[in-house]
Amino acid sequence: MANSGPLIPNPVPNSDRLEQLKQFDESKIGVKGLVDKGLTTIPSFFIHSEEPNPEPKTRPGNNHSIPVVDFSAPRETVVEQVHRASTSLGFFQIINHSVPVNAINRIVGSIKSFNEQNDELKMKYYSRDITHGAAYSTNFDLYNSKAASWRDTLQVRLAPTPPDWEYVPEVCREAIVEWDKEVVKIGEELMGLLCEGLGVEKDRLKDLSCLDGRVMAAHYYPYCPQPELTKGLTPHTDPGVLTVLVQNEMTGLQVKFGEEWVDLKPIPGAIVINIGDILQIISNDEYKSVVHRVLANPFQEPRVSVAIFFNPGQRENSFGPLPELISGEKPAVYREFMYKDYMGRFFSKELDGKTLTNYYRVSNQI
Fold it and tell me: Pick from 104, 262, 125, 258: which is nearest to 186 by CA?
């Protein structure tokens, strides 16, 4: 798709920008399709107004790193390490876990294979209508964001209601079904460890239906010809309870630690875990949901990641800090809310920052 104007950021919606967005969206080729057409400059609606991105490598003098938890250690050690990582950075990688490495390779490989099929095969799955439980598109917030990000995404609702499988790309179907089974097992194990770290019953999160709502977002970040001008994924926190992510060995994922961005270095066979906003609220601020982002990919090899978001399955339920974590010394930091209202707020805004947890803080009540 040719650029119809100068390459300047345009965060204010206008008819020219809207026309460009529609033209791109209706082409159904995604950013991978733009790359395949030999694009050398990115369309203006992908340009972000922030400072140019740093190179995707650890900067000299950076003293922080993402914790790695060895699941083969004694349980009390694993509980302590998961608790420490969750109360500080909110991100950690797990190794020597129960998930077979070939299962990780299979799901990542199937997503890569789908994105590298020809446009005609992919286009029939391209949609912004998620009512069938699956859709492939570029940026779910394409029309709401100040600037688009350089990635294509296959989103699949896995539970409590499975998708209409004919809307899921055939090359991915079996791998997604098998991956969901593995993720449920590791998710239950993780939630038990997290509960033990809080000093509450091991099945507390499970009983709150936190295992029961699952959505997959499989991202494909192709080569970007001007990676310094855009993002792969803008800074944000995840709205749910817990995120379980696997990826190939391409760098790009960064976590905010204070005022620094820390690179997450992929470890073959590892699984990346991060705390979501609802778990920060449920834990009464003991666990931290931390801002993270993905840089646009400057390499010819694509970055591929598959995230499963664990959310409450009971949408009509109210959520807030666990009563057993509230005391005179530690009053409730958040007010209660209906989960369906909470997610409505998430999808009505641009993917950006910590607005959800801040909104529900008691200190923000009028």
Answer: 104
